[in-house]
Amino acid sequence: EEPKAWVWSAVSVGPRECPGAAKCPRGEDCFAEVARRRAASADVVVVNTHLYGLHLGSRGMILPDHDVVVFDEAHEVEDIMSATTGLEVGPGSVTSLARIVGNLIADDALLDHLDSDAARLSALLAPEVGSRLRRGLPDEVSDTLVALRERVTQVTNTVRKIDDRAGTDTATRKERVTKAATGLLDDLATIVNPPGDSVLWVGGTPDHPKLELAPLDIGATLDSLLWNATESGLDIDFGDAVDPDGHDGQVDDGTYGIPDTVILTSATIPDGLAERLAIPPDTVEVIDVGTPFDFENHAVLYCAAHLPDPRSQNYGAAVAEELVRLINAAGGRTLALFTSYRAMNEAADAVAEQVSFPILRQGDRPKPALVEAFSEDAESCLFATMGFWAGIDVPGDSLRLVAIDKIPFPRPDEPLLQARRERAAAAGFSTIDLPRAATMLAQGAGRLIRTATDRGVVAVLDPRLATKKSYRWQLISALPPMHRTKEFDEVRDFLASLAGSAPDAS
After folding, report:
1. Is residue 376 part of a domain?
2. Of 26, 204, 319, 500, which has fewest CB within 10 angstroms of its CB?
3. How many domains in the chain?
């Protein structure tokens, strides 16, 4: 089971709290500092895209200078950069500060006030989780944050009075509290007066709500942080960063370097990605390296065009009935992908009563264990939601059928995308929703053919793929060039040919 947030907080130090290797008595042995020193002397450094986004958001405080950066799964860059270059403030930010303040000063009244501020903020935000704050902060929330700024300022003033000569441990704790408080003050100031080109909403869960702020146009942010950072005149203080020679201290030129070359690679790069990321057009070179897979002969794209509209009341029952036919035809060996937990659970319950094959369901076990069990039991079926549309690899006979319940259009109420749709006006669907749906659909379909010998069927149970002339071809063109059909008998015969005998498809 994943540890709770407070457990992580108790055994870790975030970048806003870390005093730096030079000022920390454990700096030489710190895992993160050791990793940074190794990275500084390495020729190749492998990190995930989230960490690189944090690196850009911190103006180069995390990774050493580098000449080239390669983004794998480039279709995710837009969303990840939006998340990591923004900021968030919530009750957890306050309780984390209170925890480290309590390790330094014995002021029960101040700590009680911080806890009360966190509780009040939580009570105000919890009912609004998922809501975009179009008109800025509600008055009560704004007043609470202003009062919280005064409280945090009181913390910094109290800590500043502590004698630096009180001992190494005290000095380290003082530095940690000072950095955390200063960072929270900066975030509070930004949240209370957000930039005009940003989107503000309440995220998290009702138990752990938080205010989130992200740039409306991630392209403009990347333009200043990555593509043209050197021309922007950014002068960055590295503080305790590690220089390329592996020594603690400040980088000599005082600025962070940007790579000369950026490579974005993915099997499903969506249309318009370069424009949305604001990559200078005269610097873009697009290369299509093709595929080693024989999709036309090894894979069939089946659209169940006879099913009812996904918005109809009987759609769920029709999906379950079609899944039973498909699973029986495939002899199990099915990855069924859904756009919601509710749809997954309803289908899994209905199908399990009508087939003899084992049904694995997301949530029954951790993701790696589920994928392993599915891979090892060739007749099993795995029912899952969005977390399984990408990043899982099940080559061979264990997977012959990928079934997709609906075209995966993004949620209409997702705050950041909602704001971008409004800015795009009439072009919102074609520039926001359709490219994302096409990319995710291609990712889901891409679970089927993983090696040159894999064969099988991608079944899309959303009839709009066959009937919506206004956008169906944009979706189909994003998929591998599979043989296409709307006839179940053709699918059954193809699956039977793979199995060597005709399975029961009643």
Report:
1. yes
2. 500
3. 2
